[in-house]
């Protein structure tokens, strides 16, 4: 393993850091129970990665088993308990626990024991914001999607659902 090719060729460096403070309002609310903070998006990192803080409320919520073809996804539990699925079994993740899933790896998550917060990292930086914004709009409107509409939504966002757990 070696370092990648240089992406910055200047001699003195630049002042380009961006601080996202803990008290910043969430970028997205999903159904009044999940708050999503876009700490770094694929667009803001030049496609290198995306990083979200995912805050789940007391009601159970989360994604069902699925995989992605174009990016890896990792989960780091900050507080509470997050049930993490590695494609074979569910395990209760507690603060400090970490799950990495390469492209093609089946995974899922949900909180089932009260509020929980985790970091979600995906690389390279796909435009995941549009997917989660569409989900939030569906939840807010109460609209019921047909199987074909769900398949279209998932297909546009590199999300391939797996029926069995």
Features:
alpha+beta, six-stranded antiparallel β-sheet, Jelly Rolls, three-stranded antiparallel β-sheet, 2 helices, 165 residues
Word description of this protein:
With 165 residues, the chain is α+β, with helices and mostly antiparallel strands. It has a domain at 28-127: Jelly Rolls, CATH 2.60.120. 15% of the residues lie in helices and 32% in strands. The chain has two helices and eleven strands, in the order ββββββββββααβ. The protein has helices at 128-141, 147-156; strands spanning 28-30, 34-40, 50-56, 66-67, 72-79, 82-85, 90-93, 98-101, 108-111, 116-123, 160-161. The strands form three sheets. It has a six-stranded antiparallel sheet, covered by helices on one side. It has a three-stranded antiparallel sheet with strand order 7-6-9, with no helix packed on it. Strands 4-11 form a two-stranded antiparallel ribbon. β1 and β2 (34-40) form a beta hairpin. It is globular, with a radius of gyration of 17 Å. The protein starts with 27 loop residues before the first strand and ends with a strand.
- Beta-strand proportion: 25-35%
The H-level CATH homologous superfamily of one domain, spelled out, is Jelly Rolls
**N-to-C SSE series?**
EEEEEEEEEEHHE
CATH class of one domain: Mainly Beta
Determine the mean pLDDT: 94
Number of strand elements: 11
Major pleated sheet: 6 strands, antiparallel
Would you identify the CATH architecture of one domain?
Sandwich
Helix count, per DSSP? 2
User: What are the segments in which pLDDT stays under 50 over at least 5 consecutive residues?
Assistant: none
Rg over CA atoms: 17 Å
Shape: globular
How many angstroms separate the termini? 35 Å
Which topology of one domain does CATH recognise?
A: Jelly Rolls
Strand order of the largest sheet: 1-2-3-10-5-8
Which percent range fits the helix content? 10-25%
- Judged by helices, strands and strand pairing, the structural class is alpha+beta
């Amino acid at each position: 393993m070696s370092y990648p090719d240089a992406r910055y060729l200047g001699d003195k460096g630049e002042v380009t850091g961006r601080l996202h403070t803990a008290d910043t309002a969430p970028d997205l609310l999903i159904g009044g129970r999940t708050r999503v903070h876009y700490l770094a998006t694929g667009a803001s990192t030049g496609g290198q990665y995306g990083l979200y803080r995912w805050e789940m409320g007391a009601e159970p919520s989360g994604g069902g088993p699925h995989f992605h073809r174009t990016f890896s996804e990792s989960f780091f539990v900050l507080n509470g308990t997050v049930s993490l699925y590695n494609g074979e079994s569910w395990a209760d993740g507690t603060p400090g626990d970490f799950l990495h899933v390469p492209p093609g790896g089946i995974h899922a998550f949900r909180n089932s024991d009260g509020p929980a917060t985790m970091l979600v990292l995906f690389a390279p930086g796909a435009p995941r914001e549009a997917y989660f914004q569409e989900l939030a709009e569906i939840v807010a409107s109460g609209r019921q999607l047909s199987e074909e509409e769900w398949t279209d939504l998932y297909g546009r966002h590199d999300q391939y659902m797996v029926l069995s757990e």
